[in-house]
Amino acid sequence: MVKSFFEEKSYESAFNAELAQGVEGSPFRHFAPGARLEAMLGFDVMTALESRNTAWRAMGLTHRSGVSIHHRAPNQLPDAVFNLFIQYKRSDALKSSRAMHHTYFGGLYYRFRFDTPKNQLATLHELAAASGSAAHIVYAAPEFHTVQELWDTMIAGKIIANSVIVEATQLQSGHKAFNFKTGKTSLQNPEPEPVKASPADVWFAQLEGRTAPLTETLGIAHAAVQGVPQWVETWRSSQPRLLGGEPFSEDPLVESAVQQFAEVTAFTWAQGLTWILAGPNS
């Protein structure tokens, strides 16, 4: 993973400049709350875009009538109507073939995290519910990560065209990040999520005081992993990508053992655990 080389503010400035160019001869009306107020409101900027602004089409959004949130901070917000609220994010580039969604995206893809600040997404969800169909509440993130790419894209007037625009209500709390690439359906949640594991004492009680064959201990470990409901769906979605479509062996017993070993290994890795296999003479 390669983190963005530019600051969020640099991207925000370039994006806003392009919004301002959307209607020739028309003023760009927007307001950016200060850092402290932003933490309370959840967005970087709110704008009042005219229906003829070409940015609507570039963002894949439709014009909306607008809403006033003046009442949320009467002394700090203008008494005016706004129809687009934007939270800007920087994007990380995932280039490695070992990246979780490398196969799905067919190579390089990008992601931005929306689990931080902690309550930001929940705050934007509340704003979306209060605004109804009167305004768009979105995240915007670039499909590039270097300073030169930012500059070249800005000069070309293609910042919006090379950004992903996601309605805040499309993102779910409990997930971490949004993965995207032009021409592909985007994905939430790039990393294994911690899940509640079965009590370890139940697992080890079955092994206490005896030496069991590897296949038997593997079966016990696999049964314990299968007892974690949240894990089952995660494994079902990951298994084809990790193991491929071809069987490891024509022997069904060997194939079963390989499948079980792979799942237990994936589970322990996702939980940050270490699984140690030892022979009777260890």
Q: Can you give the mean pLDDT? A: 82
Shape: elongated
Total helix count? Answer: 10
Number of strands: 9
- Relative strand content: 5-15%
How would you explain this protein's 3D organization?
This protein has 282 residues and is of the alpha+beta class. Helices cover 37% and strands 13% of the residues. It contains 10 helices and 9 strands. Strands 1-2-3-6-7 form a 5-stranded mixed beta sheet. A 4-stranded antiparallel beta sheet has the order 4-5-8-9, with no helix packed on it. Helix 8 crosses helix 10 (252-270) and helix 9 crosses helix 10 (252-270). The protein is elongated, with a radius of gyration of 25 Å. It starts with 7 loop residues before the first helix and ends in a 12-residue tail after the last helix.
Provide the fold topology.
Layout: H1 8-20, E1 29-31, H2 35-41, E2 45-48, H3 55-59, E3 84-88, E4 92-94, H4 102-105, E5 109-113, H5 120-131, E6 136-142, H6 147-155, E7 163-167, E8 177-180, E9 187-188, H7 200-205, H8 214-226, H9 229-243, H10 252-270
Parallel strand pairs: 3-6
Antiparallel strand pairs: 1-2, 2-3, 4-5, 5-8, 6-7, 8-9
Main attributes?
single chain; 282 residues; alpha+beta; five-stranded mixed sheet; 10 helices; 9 strands
Summed up:
With 282 residues, the protein is α+β, with helices and mostly antiparallel strands.
